[in-house]
# Entry
Amino acid sequence: MLMLFLKLLLAHILGDFVLQSNFLVEKRKHNVMYLFLHVIIHAAVLCLIFVDQLPQYYILLSFIVVSHLAIDSLKIWVEKKWNCNQAVLFVVDQFLHITILVAIVFAKYGIPYDLLQQLLTVKSLLYLIAFLLTAVVSPVFLKVVFSKWNQQNEFALKKSETLGNAGLWIGVMERLIIVLFIQVGFLSGIGFLLAAKSIFRFGDLTKAKDTKFTEYILVGTLASFLIAITIGYMLRLGLKLT
# Structure
């Protein structure tokens, strides 16, 4: 079962990323022949990977090729009809492709009766909860805590000069990295991360010559690090108790 999924996933990565140039991505939006070319390349990759098993899998592989054409056609149609967020569209597109691959594997081998029990182990739940606390809950908590300062005009003007939601994404990624460092025991990496962020921020804060904004950034950084360290050690403790 796993080998089949890995082969299908390899074919998808090769066909959808390695062998699909930016030129092909742009051209297929306006000329259906380029879309067919992309699907043919994808089909060729599948045939090469399953060359010794084509009689066994040709029906399933044909379904994958047809579904790939349908999903990509739908994506192009949505792009033309609505001005959608490209990142969201990309995630949905890839989710549909991977879902088809998983469905193919289950169609071939069936769904294990204890699949849910295998997925919902204590360790997997601990990792999931830690991820949600780090990536979803902590940004909301920090937003609420800093709401009284965010309403001040000078901070609103400072934020208007930055990339939209860049601070949010930086905070989420730094907290995830800290939690990862704690799990692998690379505690010195937390110090390196703090030093690197301080170096990048130092020039902006020096030029700004704004004590309030400097304190705002410092408090936010330390609060973010403190939350991540707390989650990281709680996860580590929980894993040890399992």
Summary: The chain has a mean pLDDT of 86. The radius of gyration is 24 Å. The first helix runs from residue 2 to 18.
